[in-house]
Amino acid sequence: MVKAFLGMGLLGSNFVTAMLEKGDKVRVWNRSPEKAAALEHLGAEVFATPARAVQGAAFVHVTLKDDQSVDEVLAAAETGLQPGAVIIDHTTTTKEGAIARTAAWKEKGFTYMHAPVFMGPANAREGSGYMLVSGSRAAVEKVSPLLEKMTGQLVDLGPEEGKAAAMKLIGNCFLVAFTAGLRDTFALAGVLGQTTRDVGSLFEIWNPAQMLPARIRRMSGGDYSKPSWELAMARKDTQIFIDTVQQQGGHLAIMPAIAALMDEWIAKGFGGNDWNVIAKDVVR
Question: Whole-prediction pTM value?
Fold first, then answer.
């Protein structure tokens, strides 16, 4: 079985390397030719255009930047697609874009499956991490045997078209917020004379990540009248974070925005409620 892979960035090139090491025949293309050429010595067949790369491929994988780049590259590849080819898109895109492409390519007689990942280059190379799929049961069944070999866990999110794209964006949103929160935590630690290693040692003993499932239940429960930490007190501490860093000439990236959000809810009369009330308007 011949496969094609369009997009030889860090993720795509490592996916292809893993395929080649397993003995797969892979045809590749990349907008910057040198990135595709770097895989030639491993056995990849390199082509100058997407249309040439996908010729004879039963499965066409795509790992690009965004909706626009996916649409442009697939349009350029269309004339080379063999009848019934399956397009598997690992790009992080909008939900609307994934839904639109699924419908558009179905009309043309092709299966399009959006399969975004929570995987880094090392995961792609070793077949670990998580890959998401959703939509048509027949389409998921068709691609699952192939995708299960590429990842540590293939997560089937059910028949809703676009759900995989949505959950990928949600996951990435959390990762961005999580990392930005750590950035502010490290900034506060620095002005208090503590190192990043000190912070890591604390979190190895007191691991806040373990609290995540319970925190989600608390935030979505709807009853904020029995506080474990009053919003007004959380707001007081938040101001201490901000002032402590500012007094040393530094700044926090996200704490001021959180303080402003807390102020909104205190102004609404929720200062004595549990501080999780700041999510009251967005939990479903």
Answer: 0.94
